[in-house]
Amino acid sequence: MPNDQIAQTPAPERDLSRLLVLNRSSGLIAHRRFRDLVDYVRAGDVLVLNDSRVIPARLRGVNMKTGGQFEVLLLEEMATNDWWVMLRPGKRARVGTRISFGGVSPAGSVLRATVTEVSAEGHRRLRFIGPPDVLETLGDLGEVPLPPYIERSARTDTARDQERYQTVYAKPPGSVAAPTAGLHFTPQLLEQLRSLGVQVCFVTLHVGLGTFAPVKSETLEGHRMHEERYLVSEATAQAIMEAKRAGRRVVAVGTTSLRVLEGVAAATGGAVVSGQGRTRIFIYPPYDFKVVDALVTNFHLPRSTLLMLVSAFAAPGESLGRQRVLAAYEEAIRERYRFFSYGDAMLLL
Predict the structure, then answer these.
(1) Range(s) of the chain covered by CATH 3.40.1780.10
(2) What backbone phi and psi angles, to 5 degrees, belong to 332?
(3) Rounded Cα distance, 180 and 341, in Å
(4) What is the pTM of this model?
(5) What are the tens digits of pLDDT across the range 185-203?
(6) Which superfamily, per CATH, for 58-141?
(7) Residue 183 main-chain phi, psi, to 5 deg
(8) Between the CA of residue 173 and those of 30, 208, 275, 297, what are the distances in Å?
(9) What is the dihedral of CA 282, 23, 147, 47, to 10 degrees?
């Protein structure tokens, strides 16, 4: 991937990012703008978006014994004030290490934490003390958890990131990375889609960094996906099942939305039912999709499970999707598309 095509900033306007449209049957590619999505939907389509809100998950702390600096990225909440985190430098954070985050919560208490466990992957489990819930302090102490390929200096004003690394429809907090396909939508575009007869629905999947972890095992079967929490409302489940019975399309916005729908369907024999739970579904070619008929997604990192998912969707039930998607990526590179979280989008029909 050419470094100069890895987007460091979002498009000037959300829906003016570019849109590569890939026809799965013919393999033909069209180059459009994201707001042209209205040309590819039809009345009766059900558009499913992930409404999880990104939390300010990056914290900077100090070793209370040595004074050494730590960078902490919250990964997964196990219980109130009990979190798995990615911590750097990890070698200096043995079990029992105490960390102070130097700020005072709105309730007047200082945020501290103790390392209670180390996982096989090298992640640390922290028990926070001070405020009743560390989530309540993140607005004052936390930073936007931008991915490492987006470079910001310590003096960079991140106010724009706080707005743009968040979908306009985000509600329940819990993600430590943005569901990036949704970053292209504006309230006006969503309203335009509704006016065309598109039914807009939401699921919630709290995105963890495990989704983006590269596959390092020698076989795909050997890769273990991290669990992520999801919620499907009764209204969304009903809308999707009515559409499937009527032969109308379900359009997933993002791999996260797709993973929720296909994960639930895999567990129920094909139905989308309401409820909450955890999924670690790993989709790669060949895969038979039970629910989703079209996919809006960003461009993904090499060797990632997300790229494998898109490859499976490009040719359902077959193994040639990888070649089709990589060919589309090669054309996107030639056409100077922008890649990854703040980059451009794809539509697979």
Answers:
(1) 3-54+162-348
(2) -60, -35
(3) 6
(4) 0.92
(5) 999 999 999 999 999 999 9
(6) QueA-like (2.40.10.240)
(7) -65, -15
(8) 36, 12, 18, 21
(9) -80
